[in-house]
Amino acid sequence: MRAARDIAAKLLRDPSATLGLLIILLLVAVATFAPLIATHPEAVWDMNPRHRLLPPSETYLFGTDRMGADIFSRILFGARITLTIAILAVGAALMIGVPIGLISGWRGNWLGETLMRVSDIFLAVPQIVLAIAISQTLGPSIENVILALSVTYWPWFARLVHAEVRSLKNETFIEAAIALGVPTWRIVLLHVLPNVMSPIIVRTSIGMGFTILTASALGFLGLGAPPPAPEWGRMISESREFLPEAWWSALAPGLAIFLVVMGFNLLGDGLRDVLDPRIRRGNAGR
Amino acid sequence: MRIAALILLRIAWLAPTLAGLVAVVFFVSRVIPSDPVALLAGETASRAQIELLRQKLGLDRPLPLQLLDYYRQLVGGDLGTSLFTTRPVWDDLSARLPATIELTIAAMVVAVALGIPLGVVAALHRNRAADHALRVVTVAGLAVASFWLALMLQLFFAMDLRWLPLQARITGFPPPPITGFYVADALLEGNFKRLGNVLAHLTLPAVTLAVPALATVVRFTRAGVLETLQRPFVAYQRAMGIPAGLIVWKYVLRNSLVSTVTQIGLLFGILLAGAVVIETVFQWPGIGAYAFEAILHSDYAAVMGFTVYAGVVFGIANLIVDILHAILDPRGAA
Amino acid sequence: MSSTHGSDVATPGDNLLEVDSLFVSFITGAGVAKVLDGVNLTIRAGEILGLVGESGCGKTTLANAILGILAANARHEMGSIRFGGEDLLAMPRSRMEDEVRGRRITFIPQDPYGSFNPLFTVGAQTLEVMKWKSPQRAPGEGRGIAGFFSRYPRARRRTDAEAIGQMLRAVQLPASAAVAGKLPHEFSGGQRQRLMIALALLPQPRLVIADEPTTALDVTIQAQILKLLKQLAKRRGISVLFTTHDLGTAYEICERITVMYAGQEVETAPVDDFFRRPHHPYTVRLLDSLPRPGRQLREVGGEIARLIDAPAGCRFHPRCARATDICRRQRPPVTSLGGGHEVRCYHPIVEAASR
User: In this structure, are residues A165 and A106 in contact, taking their beta carbons and an 8 Å threshold?
Assistant: First the structure.
């Protein structure tokens, strides 16, 4: 699509957005090729007590953790977990939230109101609180984290789409389509949805960032993938008891999280500037 | 009166929303394949013992009935009993609430007192050096995992430099409790040494908690100021030679702040969310740390109780924000 | 008419403001827009000059240039704006803000609805203007952080309050007490514009720039406001630069009219002469396009010249039936046709058309 090419061109002119895009591509590459890049692929899951808690060196780029595993390799493999969780959680939230938003925004009657009230329920507490409640009862695992995160994030998409559809309904071109007798599903899919794509895309990128933060927080609290999975949040939590001596075991995973979330945030900001500089910053924080 | 109607409407919606919240968590938890009662009973329990425990806990009754039981319990003000502390959850939470509030207020103060002026500066220097620098800083602030930042700050300031204490609210005995807020209590006591101690302990957690909030405040202040600067009254004052600094700091700021008051609800959400993790890292005895410990001990009742509690607190906070907004801007004029 | 501004005391008839060959460009993403292309303009002391032109002709930019509030991407390349013997373009910004803007040259905006801050009372906003622009204020008084938020200077509290009261009466608004505590939205558009007039006159300026002040008002109110402005200005001997795109309004209030087209001024004449005997092809077309019973409506063909790749020479030449080679190459110089009537055209229309 020519529009997509124009957008891409504009985006690439923005240095910080380009940086964000590069970081994300790096993340994907790392996750995909982890076994090839890792210096000690075998040591990710094994225990090697003789090499535990070694500082960064030529052999162990980020040092080793309490099990003797190479932290650098663990981080690379952890990228897979991070990316998986982010994509699946946000993807699921999208697939639940967007249709709900479309329906409730288009209908606007009791159905619409009810759906928005339901989404209010999930927004009644900060995401992490609800995610904790759900994860805790379900038990620590990646699947449960993904479930908890998607269940708590879909309202953001639903509300966004709802608001946009509501205002679009008043646009003249939509009124014209209705007057011309175009069937509802066609209007919604072919006219409304494309116009809602911009804010959805922006929120997706930013949502990936925040999902990763929440997921790693859950991992830190012990609710994520169980050991010995190299989940970044859990790696940080495990390093706590060995501070301040083994500082590298806490530093590296955190930097990884920081870098990745930065990437998504920068890209999201850039997308927002390109796609619609007038998008209201109502939910600026997330 | 519009404000009264608004308040009533919001309160009316609070109850069903919370009921829905409870129902959601309730049903999600009951759908798990594993058997929580078996976990509770312990590894050595026999089948008969497990079933007995299940009956005792009322977990053998149909789900909807269990939910109704829970509602009845909630309405009676009973958030359940903590399996770990064996005290009513309500008592546990209320005892620990002041610590969290103190921390949250401190973080809010930092975020707002620094964030608003920085946001104005960013807007005034739009697309120039200061704005770019602040953008990098805010993006970074929103990208950093708070628990990791907490650890790094602990590492640096508490362990390496030893400038600030590592954790907890105070070293030694707390001031005589009047408000439950150590800062206020120490002030009331007149004990400045203790006050210094308390403030030192408050610093790292409050700063860590404030980081995402600060970034958010800067961003939406900047956006609000930029929008207000486009408005005709700004051009008019400029044309009439009102001093530029006055236009910005007295008038533009006022107008943009009104619309950003609504964002304080968002801020509160960020702070509450952050509290869970940060209190854990800093061993701050608030409700966030309580939630974490509850998780650790599979104290299901406590986590549920915390969720409901958080829902109420959050709901009230948002209500207050809406009221404030309605008062400050009766016509939606700003 | 009291004036404490020393050097620019002028007798009626003298030139109060002289814009001389002003070139202003704007640097935009799409190119350099030459918004003002060598504009000449004079305003005499005590006269009401109408600046007529369609949107994009540069009249607002000219007003902004005089006030010294051009946008950051504006470049003033050549020319001067002399006011009371000084070149405003060379004046340091702090002096412009403190002594000229809002004081010796004041402003009436186009939009009475948006030009008041909706959160502050009308009284507070009036006092803010008077605090900084009262004729009793000494230059530089109160500047600095402390001064920004200080209370109203005690020494002139009473005199200024009286002046405000008198002015409110003069613009036919209710007394101070009834007005001060109210918010702007409690007033009608016409009332707000009267207040704007009051605020423009309170500092006892030499020149008021009124930027299409009646465009946003209902038609029935427009005449009232025009009459009021004219009356008060004439009584006090204050000059008015009145910009508008509406010829009817210009006829009502102005004594002399200058027409602008695409950043160039093309014709200047006393008002009656202007309407009876226009000479510039653009002006003629403009007047022709006014609907008149019994005459066919004639349009001005073509589109307004773009300012980024502006045509060389006379900017009207692409739409002008009389254009010749020299029109395309060189901007016409000023031709004086007597009686204060000037035109910039190589082929002015000289046949007398009676109106």
Answer: yes
Mean pLDDT, chain B, integer: 81
| pLDDT value for B111 | 92
Structure confidence at residue C62 (pLDDT) = 94
Q: Output the six-digit token pair for B324.
A: 């404030």
pLDDT, one tens digit per residue, over A99-124 is 988 888 887 778 888 888 888 888 87
Rounded CA gap, C164 and B234, in Å?
Answer: 22
CA dist B91 to B94, B302, C269, Å? 5, 11, 87
Mean pLDDT of C74-99: 91
In a mutagenesis test of the B interface, which of C117, C127, C152, C204 is the best target, namely the one with the most B β-carbons within 10 Å? C117
Torsion sign (Cα): C218, C224, C228, C229: positive
Beta-sheet pairing, C264-270 with C342-343:
antiparallel
Residue C345's Cβ-count burial label (10 Å; 0-12, 13-18, 19+) is buried
Backbone φ and ψ of C243, nearest 5° = -95, 145
CB C1 within 8 A of CB C10: no
Task: Check pLDDT > 50 for residue C191.
Answer: yes
Indicate whether A279 pLDDT > 50. no
Residues contacting residue C29 through CB under 8 Å, at least 6 positions apart: none
Interface check for A213 against chain B (CB to CB < 8 A): the answer is yes
The Cα B282–Cα A209 span in angstroms is: 25
By the 8 A CB rule, do B85 and B92 touch? yes
Token digits of residue A240: 């706590």
Contact list, B270 vs chain A (CB under 8 Å)? 126, 285
Report d(CA A219, CA A235) in Å as an integer.
Answer: 8
When comparing pLDDT for B103 and B267, which is higher? B103
- Residue A285 near chain B (CB below 8 Å): yes
CA–CA dist C260, B257 (Å, integer): 41
- Give contacts of A236 with chain B, Cβ < 8 Å: 145, 147-148, 151
pLDDT of C50 strictly over 80: yes
What is the distance in angstroms between the Cα of A176 and the nearest Cα belonging to chain B? 31
What count of CB pairs under 8 Å joins B to C? 76
CA distance A206 to A188: 25
Cβ neighbours of A41 (radius 10 Å): 15
Q: Give the contacts of C303 (CB within 8 A, at least 6 positions apart).
A: none
* Model confidence pLDDT, tens digit, residues B83-93: 677 788 888 88
For chains A and B, what is the number of CB pairs under 8 angstroms? 171
Surface-to-core class of residue A240, CB atoms within 10 Å of its CB (0-12 exposed, 13-18 middle, 19+ buried): middle
Chain B nearest CA to A120, separation (Å): 7
Percentage of chain C lying above the pLDDT 90 cut: 50
- Helical H segments across C76-218, by residue range: 93-95, 122-133, 145-148, 157-170, 176-180, 189-201
Q: Give the span between the Cα atoms of B216 and B266, in whole angstroms.
A: 9
Chains A and C touch (3+ CB pairs under 8 A): no
CB contact under 8 A, B334 and C143: no
What's the ipTM? 0.89
Q: pTM score, two decimals?
A: 0.83
Q: Which two tokens stand for residue C207?
A: 């020149």
Mean pLDDT of the region B160-175: 77
Is it the case that residue A212 has pLDDT exceeding 90? yes
**Could you tell me if A269 lies within 8 Å of chain B, comparing CB atoms?**
yes
Q: Which two tokens stand for residue B277?
A: 């993790």
Nearest CA in chain B to C114: B232
> Rounded to whole angstroms, how far apart are CA atoms B214 and B270?
10
The pair of structure tokens assigned to C90 is: 């060379």
R_g (Cα) of chain B, nearest Å: 24
Question: B146, exposed or middle or buried, with CB in 10 Å at 0-12, 13-18, 19+?
Answer: buried
3-state secondary structure of C237: coil
Question: B333, C67: Cβ pair inside 8 Å?
Answer: no
